[in-house]
């Protein structure tokens, strides 16, 4: 089974941006729920 998380910094960054957008809009998560992810994203 292939990984759904892409390798390489640019591809991973684009995937993570999309994940945060999708999670916020469709999974009922609020900004506080995603703080650990978005903090790591900017680091």
Topology overview:
Layout: H1 9-26, H2 35-42
Summarize the entry for a quick read.
With about 45 residues, the protein is mostly helical.
Task: Outline the structure in words.
This protein is an all-alpha fold and 43 residues long. It is built from 2 helices and no strands. It has helices at 9-26, 35-42. The radius of gyration is 11 Å and the shape is globular.
Name a few traits of the molecule.
43 residues; mainly alpha; 2 helices; 0% strand
Distance between the termini: 30 Å
Helix and strand pattern: HH
Average residue pLDDT? 88
- What's the helical proportion of residues? 55-70%
Kindly state the number of beta strands.
0
| Gyration radius over CA | 11 Å
Our count of helices gives: 2
């Amino acid at each position: 089974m292939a990984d759904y998380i892409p390798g390489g910094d640019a591809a991973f960054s684009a995937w993570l941006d999309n994940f945060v957008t999708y999670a916020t809009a469709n999974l009922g998560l609020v900004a506080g729920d995603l703080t650990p992810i978005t903090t790591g994203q900017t680091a």
